[in-house]
Amino acid sequence: MPDIAKKRHDLRLRRHRRIRRNIRGSATQPRLAVHRTNKHISAQLIDDLAGHTLAAASTYESSLRSGHTGNVTAASEVGKLIAERAKAAGVTSVVFDRGGFLYHGRVAAVAAAARDAGLEF
Questions:
Q1: Domain extents for the chain?
Q2: Does pLDDT of 80 surpass 90?
């Protein structure tokens, strides 16, 4: 990695660790972890106590990969899908983990779509 890219990545990981000190997911209220790349976005529901992923949704999936995968519209689709899968798993309330990314743009779109689809956080 070039120096500036490595520095940005390291700073994001520092923010992520700082956030994760205070956020824990459980079976009743799992952690909704969001990860963003330039081309894709993914979200997972994680039970940190058991160390299990309860549900996941991503633009890597063939159903969401048809159009653009790196924009706010695709992020909204991921948010709706993760909310549907959460309801199927019996989860209604989550703790949001932005993963060190700014709560803006695609990360905020995932959160807003999940809230609109019925998840509470």
A1: 3-116
A2: yes
Alpha-carbon gap, residue 22 to 1, rounded angstroms: 30
Amino acid identity of 57?
Answer: A
Residues 6+ apart with CB under 8 A from 98: 19, 34, 107
pLDDT digits (tens, 9 = 90+) for 30-76: 999 999 999 999 999 999 999 999 999 999 999 888 889 999 999 99
Partners of residue 48 on adjacent β-strands: none
The CATH code that applies to domain 3-116 is 3.30.420.100
CA distances from 77 to 61, 85, 103, 106, 117 (A): 11, 12, 17, 11, 10
